[in-house]
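Quick entry between incubations.
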Amino acid sequence: MTHDSMTDSDSGTDTQATDGGRESLASNDLEGSDPTTEPLVDSSIDVDGRSDAPASADRTVIESNDLDVYYDDVQALQSIDIEIPAEKVTAIIGPSGCGKSTFLRCINRMNDLVDAARIDGELLFEGKNVYDDDVDPVVLRRKIGMVFQAPNPFPKSIYDNVAYGLEVQGIEGDYDEIVEEALRRAALWDEVKDQLDSSGLDLSGGQQQRLCIARAIAPDPDVILMDEPASALDPVATSKIEDLIEDLAEEYTVIIVTHNMQQAARISDKTAVFLTGGELVEFDDTNKIFENPEHDRVEDYITGKFG
Amino acid sequence: MSERSIDVDLTRTSSGQVVKERIYKWLLFGCAALTVFVTASIIVTLAADALTFFSMVSPVEFFTGTEWFVRGDGGTYGVWPLVTATLIITVVSAIVSVPTGVAAAVYLSEYASDRMRSVLKPALEVLAGIPTVVYGYLALVYLTPALQWVGIPVSTFNLLSASIMVGIMIIPMVSSLSEDAMSSVPDSLRQAGYGMGATKYEVSTGIVIPAAVSGIFSSFILALSRAIGETMIVVMAAGLRPRMFNFANPLDNLLSSGQPMTAGMVNAVTSDATGGSATYLSMFALGLTLFTITFAMNLASDYVAARYQEEYQ
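Done. Structure below.
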């Protein structure tokens, strides 16, 4: 599985495409060529054509209405309205400090752990406001898995890492089977099947991140949140994670925060662009955002004139 | 390239600087070496006097004897009654301090709000700063009567009361060192746990404690070394009558008085025994034994810390 996907994805080409994309963006910027006449992003980047399907047919799984977030007196998000479709990859991009991670952490209420955070407005998961008083964040987080920026496996064995969610959530069943299945889906099984008892911390960074993905999908959540999951990884490991995300979208709703625009273009169906000040400026099909965005500010950001 | 030459003077401005640096270096080295020198001298002195003692009393008798009876300059010197009393104190104080200390550390590190922590941590440090003679007094005057009042038939001087008080004394040590270990667990691990739908209790017990286990364990060992070496509380509250461990009635050992090794040493030095007599020198043999035990425990602590230390990125 792993070896196959490595050759299929020709990670080398992907990396080159990324570099090429950056160069062309930079030269566009310098020459001041009119970006509307040509695709903003190098067409060698595969947008996968998945977003060709009409957006209206998608079921909305997460929806926010007029969502404001404050850290003490600083407003981190300004009345965010978004409808995130089920079983698609939705990318959230934007410059540093634009609130994209804040938004992601609102979805599974990880911001509850930050004392200074205050949230106004609605965030609906399957139609239920997760900030209602009767919602237990622990139960919510069992339905919404999360993968973090830096790999953070527990100092336990590989097996116990994957089984952790099953244990705390009291899931019954054949753990051996579930653990194997999760590791297979995370494209890690072949590499670790002979060392399930060794520590998760002994793996390489890329393997650790795939272990974290396996850990997140083992309890079979509905949604997987990813907070810049590849930013701490090298290009080869990044490419594996990206392949994995595309596979995951067949069964899960994936919401991924990334600062890498090429990554968003490669793997996502829908893209949300947050800009400084915590504002959601544009949310549309990824093709549309990268080829013909409606807002000039989004265009400036994507072409590298800003941010 | 450039013909312009600036007059750069790279020579040392004053030769005194080098001498000063050298003096600083040796001064600092002296302070570091002093501690090593003092430690070494203590070991040598202990060993020398202990050897003199062992020329009067055979080591076999000392290390296998089950009776410690001192009268004047002579007596019977079997170390086991003292060792067993020390062990009782260590075990009971561990039973008191380990669960309480770890629970307090979990509260401070995981549950307490910043305000609560800012009140509790100094309070714990005050507990650690109380002179042990005060603890000894409290054990003798309040704890022992309180134990009798609730119906535990302890004698006036007893090991139970002394052990509980030693346990209370080392709680701050266990909790503060354990809390340091827990606080240094990376926050990303807690986030991962919460992200998986774990409760605070599950994160604390299932992730933070296992991740900090090496630090927590070495806090136990350091605190118990402290308990083994504790003197004042046991002298005041446990009594000065050495009794061999009563295997027939183990509970009786707690309820009645006993004399641990440290108290035995105090007894030797405060007795009428003349300098150079076996009784006087027995202090050094006991000291060396005690030193060996605590030293071994500190080595064990280092080993455990190194063995179970997790490397985080």
